[in-house]
Amino acid sequence: MQLMNEPAANVALAAARAVLAEKGRSFFWASHLLGKKHAGRATRLYAFCRYLDDLADEASSPEDARLALSHARESIVTGETSDPILEDGIDLMKECGILPAVVLELICGITSDLETVRMTDEADLLRYCYRVAGTVGLMMCCVLDTKNPLALAHAVDLGIAMQITNICRDVAEDARLGRRYLPASLVGDVSPDQLIWPSTILQPILIKSLAHLLDKADQFYQSGELGLPYLPLRARSGILVAASIYQAIGIRLAQRNFAYWAGRASVSDRQKFGISLHELATKPFQLDFWKCHTAHRVNLHVALKGLPGIVNQDAT
Question: Which spans in the chain are helix H?
């Protein structure tokens, strides 16, 4: 497969921007802080990953979804496709040096949503979060020209943090799809139906579980932020803002005593502006924004050993 010519690439980028603006509002907001090249690449990556996700979510049946994802997997392995969105994604992989194994893990995570989703324990949840979001962090390192391999662990952590936030925000929405991402080790072997409008007996258990998971997410956010100095300066600012806006969703949920069933926690455009202004006015004056940390908290990745991009490091 040859790389797209310039007119076709421009069409693909315009389509990717439309997808980001419609479906990834927090990332769309933060993308304005990236330079032109990195913003374009990040937008294309979002559209590529979103398209893979939509192959599962928008299929007419689980069987059709599995077949579509299987074809996508084959395209990633061979580097050949007639699908224009996959073609642009494969072009981006070649352009940025994204390893096929990382994309295949993403597809594995998406495919797992077609099965019965009942997380057993936190290790089970973290492996899922790695596959559907930590892999995106690894790909973003390539997209943003981050060459230092020490950045990878922090990128994975930021992706995991965001996905845990998503899961805590969307408990009821996922339950309506028959999925329970909250681990049985925290909430018990409850059915998704019980999570939509939880009983007064179950509510305290869910509140405690979400508080625990969002506290864990904050640990991953902290590690993700320690990876910012490995990024180019403008990209550093964009990722900082995107992470802070996502983390604010968890804060909003905590302010409502984690009662996700009372309505979906969100961050308004006005709040996004305030968060962006605060982060950009304060973080660049802190040493951690500039100084690279050579060690990574190995305990964060105990459940992820053997997965692409996960390396053994000394605990700190």
Answer: 6-23, 25-31, 36-57, 62-78, 84-96, 100-112, 122-129, 135-143, 151-169, 171-176, 184-187, 192-196, 203-226, 233-255, 269-282
Q: pLDDT value at position 33? A: 65
Residue 1: pLDDT above 90? no
In this prediction, residue 269 carries a pLDDT of 87
Task: State both tokens at 223.
Answer: 């590690």
- Say if residues 289 and 197 touch (Cβ distance below 8 Å): no
pLDDT reported for residue 291: 85
- Give the Cα separation of 179 and 202 in Å (integer): 17
Q: Enter the pTM of the model.
A: 0.89
Whole-angstrom distance, CA of residue 76 vs CA of residue 257? 43
| Domain 118-316: which CATH number of 1.10.3720.10, 1.10.10.10, 1.10.10.2910, 1.10.600.10 | 1.10.600.10
What is the distance between the alpha carbons of residues 236 and 194, in angstroms, rounded to a whole number? Answer: 41
Q: Per the structure block, which two tokens stand in for 69? A: 């994802």
Where is mean pLDDT largest: 90-99, 233-242, 293-302?
A: 90-99
Burial class (CB within 10 angstroms; exposed 0-12, middle 13-18, buried 19+) of 141: buried
Task: Report the pLDDT value the prediction gives residue 315, as an integer from 0 to 100.
Answer: 42
Q: Which pLDDT band holds residue 186 (cuts at 50, 70, 90)?
A: very high
CA 49 from centre of chain: 10
Output the six-digit token pair for 251: 């804060």
Residue ranges per structural domain of the chain? 1-115, 118-316
Q: Which residue has the tokens 């006015």?
A: 281
250 vs 94: CA distance, rounded Å: 35
Taking residues 22-41, report their average pLDDT: 65
Mean pLDDT calculated for residue range 185-205: 97
Q: How far apart are CA 94 and CA 133, in angstroms?
A: 20
Give, as one character, the DSSP assignment of residue 118.
B
